[in-house]
């Protein structure tokens, strides 16, 4: 099964909800709501900077989003506590199915890459800490062209870096906007729907595949190639 696969990192291989553990120590039962808003604003800020062509790297979007959440939710947090939370973002856990799914895809001779809005070194360190870096051929970052997903230029950048064509390449993501962006740019896209409550955007573009986890992804891709 010789295909090229670009894995989104935050929200697909790595569980961004893992930050709740660190937040819980600071703000207790408000941690989950804070985490959800932080993630939403982090993505919103990347979208806005991409459209404005006023680039700052993803860590800046993350820090700005944290500051917004503290003000919007009226959470008092010291500078040291904010630094500690931002550091915790560098050590988030992998999803439980990530290692098994990646191992099976690698064994099936797929070419596997991490493809992220994050800075290359940040992504490499994150994947290494999560103990899944060994399954990936490399990291491709949107930082390399100073933009963010879902700008079509970033998907073209991935294909150039991987030396692959769109029709033979897949983008795998738990984020609907990323799947839509990749398909719009000429790739195939699989949506990882880990929660029954997750909703895909009701656009004219739908996922090539929808799977519940990365192990199922391997099974579906193998079936598609047979």
Mean pLDDT: 95
Can you identify the CATH superfamily of the largest domain?
Answer: HAD superfamily/HAD-like
Number of domains: 2
Strand content: 5-15%
| Uncertain stretches of 5 or more adjacent residues | none
Total helices: the number is 9
Note down, in words, how this protein is organized.
The chain is an alpha/beta fold and 226 residues long. The chain has two domains: 4-15 and 92-225, Rossmann fold (3-Layer(aba) Sandwich); 16-91, DNA polymerase, domain 1 (Orthogonal Bundle), CATH 1.10.150. Helices cover 48% and strands 12% of the residues. It has nine helices and six strands, in the order βαααααβαβαβαββα. A six-stranded parallel sheet has the order 3-2-1-4-5-6, with helices on both faces. The longest helix has 22 residues, at 31-52. The protein is globular.
Give the key terms.
226 residues; alpha/beta; Rossmann fold; DNA polymerase, domain 1; 2 domains; 9 helices
Short structural summary:
This protein has nine helices and six strands.
């Amino acid at each position: 099964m010789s295909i090229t696969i670009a894995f989104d990192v935050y929200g697909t291989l790595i569980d961004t909800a893992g930050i709740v553990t660190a937040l819980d120590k600071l703000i207790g039962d408000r941690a989950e709501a804070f985490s959800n808003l932080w993630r939403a604003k982090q993505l919103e800020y990347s979208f806005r900077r991409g459209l404005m062509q006023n680039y700052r790297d993803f860590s800046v979007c993350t820090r700005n989003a944290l500051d917004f959440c503290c003000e919007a939710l009226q959470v008092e947090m010291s500078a040291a506590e904010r630094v500690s939370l931002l550091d915790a973002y560098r050590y988030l856990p992998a999803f439980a199915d990530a290692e098994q799914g990646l191992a099976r895809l690698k064994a099936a001779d797929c070419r596997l890459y991490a493809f992220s809005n994050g800075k290359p070194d940040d992504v490499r360190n994150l994947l290494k800490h999560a103990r899944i870096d060994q399954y990936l051929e490399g990291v491709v970052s949107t930082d390399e062209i100073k933009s963010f997903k879902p700008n079509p230029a970033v998907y073209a950048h991935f294909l150039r870096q991987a030396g692959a064509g769109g029709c033979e390449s897949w983008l795998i993501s738990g984020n609907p906007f990323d799947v839509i962006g990749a398909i719009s740019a000429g790739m195939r896209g699989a949506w990882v729907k880990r929660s029954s409550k997750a909703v895909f955007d009701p656009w004219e573009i739908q996922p090539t595949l929808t799977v519940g986890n990365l192990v199922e992804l391997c099974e579906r891709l193998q079936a598609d190639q047979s």
